[in-house]
Amino acid sequence: MTPPDDNDAGRLALVFGLGNPGPRYAGNRHNIGFLVADELADRIGSGFKRHKSGADIAEGRLDGVRVAVAKSRSLMNLSGGPVAAAARFYKVPPESVIVIHDELDLPYGRVRLKRGGGENGHNGLRSISRSLGTRDYLRVRFGVDRPPGRMDPADYVLRDFSKAERAELGYFVDHCADAVRTLTTKGLEAAQNEFH
């Protein structure tokens, strides 16, 4: 992949889906960012290619907007390095980076968008904030609900979606991808108005 030229740099959306690589984690709640990234790559008609940033990246256009959809090849807790490296490569400022991640404090399937905020115990977000030097990036939060009973949240997000959840997962992934599309084409306020 070649770097975008200066004329295109401002029009490229860098979208990072968070997850853990490898088949062991593929169906985990923590990997919802990867699932949405896969859907977005399908929509732009592009496969993922290894990139020097430490991520696999698919490039194309989403409703006319140039996008680079990325998934880190490192574990979730080390996502920051690849995110920051890809942002430098594409000349995307931190406040324009879009990160898709699982959110315990939202009901299953609910999508919320925001800029900035805390990490709420999410080690992937903590790594990204540290590597970008700011918390002021865009977040697409996909609700996975709270763990039942006294289950450790870390164990809960590393478990696969339940059978009941999987029955609706395709719909919710599609809905989340729609939210990302609106965010990249119309901006944060329009996406919040439509999806909140």
Name the descriptors.
196 residues, alpha/beta, Rossmann fold, 7-stranded mixed β-sheet, 7 helices, 38% helix, globular, disordered N terminus, cytoplasm, Pept_tRNA_hydro
Helix content: 25-40%
Total count of domains: 1
Helix-strand pattern, N to C?
Answer: HEHEEEHEEHEHHH
Largest sheet features: 7 strands, mixed
Q: Which homologous superfamily in CATH is the superfamily?
A: Peptidyl-tRNA hydrolase
**Oligomeric form:** single chain
- Tally of helical runs: 7
Read across the widest sheet, the strand sequence of neighbours is 2-3-4-1-5-7-6
Q: Note the beta-strand portion.
A: 15-25%
Mean pLDDT over the residues: 93
CA radius of gyration is: 15 Å
Task: Quickly give the structural class.
Answer: alpha/beta
In short:
By secondary structure, this protein is α/β, with parallel strands linked by helices. The chain is built from seven helices and seven strands. The chain has a seven-stranded mixed β-sheet, with helices on both faces.
